[in-house]
Amino acid sequence: xxxxxxxxxxxxxxxxxxxYCDGEWKAxxxxxxxxxxxxxxxxxxxxxxxxxxxxxxxxxxxxxPAQKLWAKTPLWKRAELLHRAAAILKEHKAPxxxxxxxxxxxxxxxAVTEIPLGVVLAIPPFNYPVNLAVSxxxxxxxxxxxxxxxxxxxxxxxxxxxxHCFHLAGFPRGLISCVTGKGSEIGDFLTMHPGVSCIxxxxxxxxxxxxxxxxxxPLQMELGGKDACIILEDADxxxxxxxxVKGGFSYSGQRCTAVKVVLVMESVADKLVEKVNAKVQKLxxxxxxxxxxxxxxxxxxxxxxxxxxxxxxxxxxATFCQEYRREGNLIWPLLMDHVRPDMRIAWEEPFGPxxxxxxxxxxxxxxxxxxxxxxxxxxCVFTRDINKAILISDAMETGTVxxxxxxxxxxxxxPFQGLKDSGIGSQGITNSINMxxxxxxxxxxxxTPSYTMG
Length: 454
Ligand code: NAP
Hints:
Structural class: alpha/beta
Strand order of the largest sheet: 11-14-15-10-9-17-18
Helix content: 25-40%
Number of strands: 22
Largest sheet: 7 strands, mixed
Low-confidence stretches: 117-121
Distance between the termini: 73 Å
Bound molecules: NADP nicotinamide-adenine-dinucleotide phosphate
Number of helices: 14
């Protein structure tokens, strides 16, 4: 159970999860807590501390001396501690997976696969609160930095369990801290804090606002996307349909690299839509505990936002392949055909199980739509002609293009980057370590002609 067994000390007597500062689990002096709403039941499931600005100051103060000592710790010792934390994380993945089911309605099978140790640091989003935290923490530590983690509110308890695994591994006091509270309340104070020397953020438009406020600190930003799937006449339509459904509807479309718009050649559009529909009908809808394919989206406001996009498309006469259905945060999967560029769903990121299909008459039209987006995360193209695929990939203004497969993050050592409003910098173990390492050049100039050639 969450917060019991080796995790007992991370919860206080009132059942509120503590925050982590200077090697200790603490209750906030604010006396306030932030409720975490279970997306399925829509009632409070967990509570975390609402940390104060003074507590943020203390966390950052404790992180600075810890970092100075850590930077002098040999690399092999840093790696040894990380391996120990990885082993503890694997051993205790069950309570973390349980938190992901209750906090963010992640289907149980996907919740467990989020737990192996990955790479990197500081402000992760709700949809991967453990994986995208560890993928920031590990390279930061190996490069000799200390960490202040601000987990997403939905997903905070899973992240606190993960931090406790680092605590159990025996990292020095102050090296890793975790501050909880609403991003809207403590986020600006944290990101503009003079003691912060680098920000690694994954999330939505919040990242754009942070980049404008943060000042002269290195930024690593992984933001939203509108990943396009271009399907040509010669594509293997069964393969394309399978990838459209997997890419568009896994974890109810709440993935940065979900397929978010299908651009299909008119001549094969009817066949493709028929094949996609056949698969959409088979998706199971319900509770994450039952391992359903489609589970409630994370918050009521997300569900309302998605509904707004759906209603706009309906009013502008997109063809709905299924009847639109919603109960609370649960939205049934919906494919919308004959979507046009004047509809919001053609451009905006729904982050839910609704997928628009735009019929195109040329490859150029597809590339034009893709590049007219303010996002540039990933894209994909389905064709049997590899030469055409490479040309299209070159023309698409995105960080990655998948040929004959849905967009995906890939293994953590792969470079991963978004262009335009989809991000700044590149993740992947090597890139993250480089980004979190300060380069210092010392040039020794000998006065001439004071040395002689032997
Ligand atoms: P979000 O609303 O931008 O929140 C992301 C994180 O920022 C959360 O931890 C949030 O905390 C925090 N935050 C909120 N306001 C803040 C502020 N003023 N200063 C500092 N931090 C603040 O995003 P989300 O809804 O969690 O995640 C969905 C978005 O993430 C989508 O757009 C998706 O495409 C994107 N995403 C991108 C990638 C990628 O690799 N490119 C991967 C995954 C997700 P609270 O929860 O407390 O508000």
